[in-house]
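We emphasize that the prediction below concerns an isolated chain of 251 residues; any contacts that depend on oligomerization or on bound cofactors are therefore not represented. The input was used exactly as deposited, without trimming of termini.
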Amino acid sequence: MRGDSRPRLSGGAKLRGRGRPRHISQPIANGPCWDGEGQAGPCVITQHKTETRDGYPAAQIGLVEFVKESRLTQPMKGHLGKHNLPPVKFVREVPIEIDEKAQSDGAVKAGDRVLVDIFEGERFVDIVGVSKGRGFQGVVKRHHFGGGPKSHGSMFQITGSIGSSAFPSRVFKGMRMSGHMGNARVTVRNLRVLGVEKDDNLLVVEGSVPGPNGGYLIITKAKKPPRERRGFAGLMTVDPLKAAKRAAKKA
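Result of the prediction step, given as a token string:
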């Protein structure tokens, strides 16, 4: 996108979450060593909150999917019926900011579609999802403990000692022990964008994403993208140490 690398919504307003664009998608497939292809959206804006009416500017977006009308609650039916919107799932609210350089008034209105083209020109994204639930797990699987001897008569996967008995006569907070594993909100940062397919509304990223196949994800612009390594930013990369030595020789 020329002049402004940040994706924007129709009407000249930029959609962001904590200052970053967001989108809701579903993973199609992913693996540890190959690219994951995610079907993003389509999403629709279900509500526009303003500073004067609500106290802060924000946009509520939802994932458009087939939902039986009988599955919707009465408040949600009335909320969507105000603007004649289709049934949506996985509703989230994100802040917005207005682009002053935009030619239009920059108003975001309910019913505007949010597609994957908002990530066109982006190199890295952050993806938020809910990890797979693993149930109650021990310390070897949950915290990667090495365990004890695996010979006969040894319970090598037990936790072991967790503290002294005389002093301090208690267990310190944060002790790594057995417990519930997974089913938690996970953010994977700086996944490289390999392609944006506008026709199929697909976003192709490199790496794995949290959650099972068919789960829901929130895609945002990378909050802290990695910097380019020295020597990989092009032929015009300048090494400050070599430049200082050349300047000293000329002097």
